[in-house]
């Protein structure tokens, strides 16, 4: 099925999110839509999927102009969408999620789950998805949950598949698996729209690339284009893809973690007897496949884990046993791995989110009253300094693009007087321009003498930011090695293999 978008324009008040956009996607083609967060990519696809109505322009499938009043119409026309944030019911089985919305019924109107199971098996076997129809979704790894989303779309005979930032929550291994799935779908004749801002992925699978900036198509590019060329098209200026930093000026031991063990309420150990030290003015980056204790480690440092054994000292002061509020107040900044769940209050404004860590006293609260003038002046200044793109400081956080949400979290944490920065997946789901900016801010924090712990599943990010690298596997430290350790060695360490020789 051929898809053509012709002169699509979508406005939200005075904001023109899509401005006269046209593109065509052929059957058996992966057409990549590349652009910064907030460029209008997802808005365009939401118009295609019937979630928004276009103010101008038309959607054409196989030469016929379409009129969608909602996603049901788009699905019936053969369009399927795999969202960045999965549209699954966690407590339902795979089969129940797949049949949701077009339930097959049997005798006396009962749900025909057997038919759904058969359909899941057929699609799973055809594309090698290896998905159990009876598995409960919340028990599945993120990468498998994404396959369930794809099965949902294919079960409704989708011929045009839209992947909206599909790798934002995936590990490198899961990303590679998704790339292979997309190639299989292309080979089967599906027309695929791939929305992303990750240059490596674009060059790996795209047949054609359309670049959108500030709501407009600014050019087309070949997958053979260099990273620098693609990045420049995306942001409208040359982008520095390499992190430049001077050798660290190291101070005394600042964060000292000794014998740290973290277990959940059921007694399952996620962090097992970890010890490490970060000196003032140093970045220690944690590398490892997601799910090997990184989340529990960072949460333990912030007092968010209840079952903790061992010692965590910052500038000689013990943090274990302190409340989250007390830990924040001693100067610990925290960029959480999930900005929506843990970093922001979506219904709060930009200004309100910027004061979350400091809502109990000066400068924003005095005598239990919010000092609006002080807060608004700070918010306006921060909006400009951190290049947070929004209509104004009264914009709700959930109305921002992912990259601007992340910059909002970074701005709040780095605008405080810090003694330690803990940054978990600091650039997950953000575009190349925002990555450049966030990396610069982390390096500047380190250069100011603050110890920094960075946790990332992106090896490029780990090696770019780190002064030393700590590799974890199944909740234990495999080794702490220099930042210039070859990727091949780091990859082996991430499987649990210990390096030869002494560690740093």
Automatic annotation (TrEMBL):
Record's protein name: ABC transporter ATP-binding protein
PROSITE patterns per record: ABC_TRANSPORTER_1 (PS00211), ABC_TRANSPORTER_2 (PS50893)
SMART domains in the cross-refs: AAA (SM00382)
Domain ABC transporter: 3-239, 255-499
Keywords: ATP-binding, Nucleotide-binding
Gene source species: Nocardioides taihuensis
GO-annotated molecular function: ATP binding
């Amino acid at each position: 099925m051929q898809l053509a978008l012709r002169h699509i324009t979508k406005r939200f008040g005075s904001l023109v999110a899509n401005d006269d956009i046209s593109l065509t996607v052929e059957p058996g083609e992966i057409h990549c839509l590349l652009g910064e967060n907030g460029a209008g990519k997802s808005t365009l696809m939401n118009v295609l999927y019937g979630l928004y109505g276009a103010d101008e322009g038309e959607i054409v499938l196989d030469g016929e102009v379409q009129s969608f009043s909602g996603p049901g119409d788009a699905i019936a026309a053969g369009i399927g969408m795999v969202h960045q944030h999965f549209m699954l019911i966690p407590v339902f089985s795979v089969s129940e999620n797949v049949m949701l919305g077009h339930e097959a019924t049997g005798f006396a109107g009962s749900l025909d789950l057997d038919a759904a199971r058969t359909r899941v098996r057929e699609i799973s076997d055809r594309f090698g998805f290896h998905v159990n129809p009876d598995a409960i979704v919340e028990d599945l790894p993120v990468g498998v949950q994404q396959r369930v989303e794809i099965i949902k779309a294919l079960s409704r005979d989708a011929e045009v598949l839209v992947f909206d930032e599909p790798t934002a929550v995936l590990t490198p291994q899961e990303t590679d698996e998704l790339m292979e799935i997309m190639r299989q779908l292309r080979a089967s004749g599906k027309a695929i729209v791939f929305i992303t801002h990750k240059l490596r992925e674009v060059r790996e699978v795209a047949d054609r690339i359309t670049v959108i900036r500030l709501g407009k198509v600014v050019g087309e590019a070949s997958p053979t284009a260099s990273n620098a060329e693609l990045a420049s098209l995306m942001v409208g200026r040359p982008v520095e893809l390499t992190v430049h930093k001077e050798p660290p000026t190291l101070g005394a031991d600042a964060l000292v973690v000794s014998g740290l063990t973290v277990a959940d309420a059921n007694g399952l150990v996620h962090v097992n007897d970890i010890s490490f030290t970060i000196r003032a003015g140093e970045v220690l980056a944690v590398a490892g496949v997601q799910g090997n204790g990184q989340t529990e480690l960072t949460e333990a440092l912030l007092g968010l884990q209840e079952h903790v054994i061992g010692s965590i000292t910052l500038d000689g002061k013990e943090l274990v046993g302190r409340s989250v509020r007390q830990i924040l107040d001693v100067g610990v900044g925290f960029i959480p791995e999930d900005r929506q769940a843990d970093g922001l209050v979506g219904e709060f404004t930009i200004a309100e989110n910027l004061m979350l860590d400091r809502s109990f006293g000066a400068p924003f609260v005095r005598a239990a009253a919010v000092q609006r003038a002080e807060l608004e002046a700070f918010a306006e200044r921060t909006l400009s300094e951190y290049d947070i793109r929004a209509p104004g400081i009264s914009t709700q956080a959930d109305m921002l693009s992912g990259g601007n949400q992340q910059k909002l979290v970074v701005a709040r944490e780095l605008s405080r007087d810090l003694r330690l920065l803990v940054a978990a997946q600091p650039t997950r789901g953000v575009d190349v321009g925002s990555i450049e900016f966030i990396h610069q801010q982390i390096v500047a924090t380190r250069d100011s003498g603050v110890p920094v712990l960075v946790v990332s599943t992106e090896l490029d990010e780990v090696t770019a930011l780190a002064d030393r690298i700590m590799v974890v596997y199944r909740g234990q430290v495999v080794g702490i090695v220099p930042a210039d350790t070859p990727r091949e060695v780091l990859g082996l360490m991430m499987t649990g293999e210990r390096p030869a020789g002494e560690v740093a």
